[in-house]
Amino acid sequence: MKTGSCLCGSVAFSFPDGPEKVTACHCSQCRKTSGHVWAAFHVPLADLTFSRDGGLSWFESSDWAKRGFCNTCGSSLFYQMKGEATINIAAGAVDEPTGLTLTRHIFVADKGDYYSIGADGADQIEKY
To answer: What confidence score (pLDDT) does residue 69 get?
Structure first.
């Protein structure tokens, strides 16, 4: 099992080991919620378990998705599409060693004007 948490520890979770592929999203919503790029991977919702969830709150960020965050420290932790059986977990919230690999960038056409995307070998998708 792999583990993760928010900055203050009010939300702590675990999920099974696996070859998680990380996607970096450059859309304006992800940049606003994270302060920059939001990098995440998905697991089946049924595989995510919480050892602490007292600080977990949800924000409906669009008609199609909601975002989970810690209401104590503000850590952005989860993204879930409505009706989906999977959940996206913030890569930065996972305890090391993560075993994660960045494999693609999405919404690169919407990226902020203050940075450029480096040549990290990951796929770059203009829209998603």
So the answer is: 97
Q: Is-contact 60 78, C-beta < 8 A?
A: no
pLDDT digits (tens, 9 = 90+) for 38-75: 999 999 999 999 999 999 999 999 899 999 999 999 99
Q: What is the pLDDT of residue 121?
A: 86
How much is the average pLDDT of 5-27?
A: 94
CB contact set of 79 (below 8 Å; sequence gap of 6+): 38, 40, 65, 66, 67, 68, 87, 88
Question: What is the identity of the amino acid at 65?
Answer: A
Distance between CA 88 and CA 40 in Å, rounded? 6
Q: Are residues 32 and 38 in contact, defined by beta-carbon separation less than 8 angstroms?
A: no
Per the structure block, which two tokens stand in for 15?
Answer: 């999920």
Predicted TM-score of the model (pTM): 0.92
Judged by DSSP in three states, 70 sits in strand
Contact between 81 and 64 under an 8 Å Cβ cutoff? The reply is yes
Structure tokens at 97: 């060693």
CA 61 – CA 67 distance, rounded (Å):
7
* Topology of domain 2-125, CATH: 2.170.150
